[in-house]
Specification:
The protein is built from 7 helices and 17 strands. α1 runs antiparallel to α2. The radius of gyration is 20 Å and the shape is globular. Bound molecules: flavin-adenine dinucleotide.
Amino acid sequence: MIDKELKEIFDRGIFKGEMKFDEPMSAHTSLRIGGPADVMVFPEDPVSLKNVLLAAKKENIPVFILGGGTNLLVSDEGIEGLVISLKAFRGIEFTRDSDDKTVVLYVGAGEPLAGLLNFAQRNGCTGLESLTGIPGCLGGAVYMNAGSFGVELKDVIVSVAVMDMSGSISILEKDKLNFSYRNSNLPEGSIILSANVALLKDAPEDILRRMKEFLQKKKNTQPLGEPSAGCVFRNPEGAAAGRLIDVAGCKGMRVGGVEVSGAHANYFINKGRATCRDFLDLMELVKAKVKEHSGIVLEPEIKIAGRR
Ligand SMILES: Cc1cc2nc3c(=O)[nH]c(=O)nc-3n(C[C@H](O)[C@H](O)[C@H](O)COP(=O)(O)OP(=O)(O)OC[C@H]3O[C@@H](n4cnc5c(N)ncnc54)[C@H](O)[C@@H]3O)c2cc1C
């Protein structure tokens, strides 16, 4: 049924973009873990996105929105229904709201965060330097309220354009948004299409210098070159999850192909042929060790998706 309904919108020419069946999610996640999505689509424009959402709604097909897949653990059994990638929703533009000191940029959800940072640097716009080294797309970064070294996406957001599961688009201004630590708290079923971000003007060479410094700090403490999904657990109030995991003696702990990083204990690394099951089992072991050692119960920061 899912094939029929989706192939129909494709054949009728009301969906522009790619459509792939049984697409392995391991090819779309930084962890390189995850079984197949029943269907994965790459709509090229908002109308195609709306039409695919309506087709899914008609047949009660579950929908999952994928960004860069860098904060994601996908089940070995894959994802039921439809996975939507907004890769094509890229682009950065200056808006008319800029003045002498501030620049407001429109950024598409599929724009890699690194692309935004480089654009901002080249054009003398400061405010995002400390996010250097965070992979993924703007949509995922807004959804997660990604941040580092004391700056979060919420600090630069002016407004966010979202589509609901019926294809209606609305603009949510910053004062209507309720960002918190690694959470955008957007209304259920919101698909981020784009965001406007406000940055201050500064000299490109100073921005570049700060970006290099932040990246170096990260490289010194985080295993940026190995397959991971960033921090596995949220930092509990007043503590760093990585430190708690480290002092509980978990560095180097391994289940199957997944290992707790020696560089940063809150990163779990795919050492090769890792499965989602390995990852979940290691999470449980680490949680138990930390609870035993410090009495603190860790909560996941990564998003876990797919069949259970
Ligand atoms: C090496 C490494 C370092 C990292 N360092 C940091 C760091 O310093 N700070 C930090 O905060 N994070 C960090 N991360 C985690 C991750 O990169 C960020 O959370 C990133 O912003 C996630 O973006 P993404 O596009 O990959 O989202 P995904 O992983 O694809 O998705 C994450 C969640 O967002 C939802 N989502 C994605 N796009 C949309 C959209 N358009 N509309 C609605 N929902 C959407 C997904 O459904 C999912 O629930 C790191 C990850 C790695 C691998």
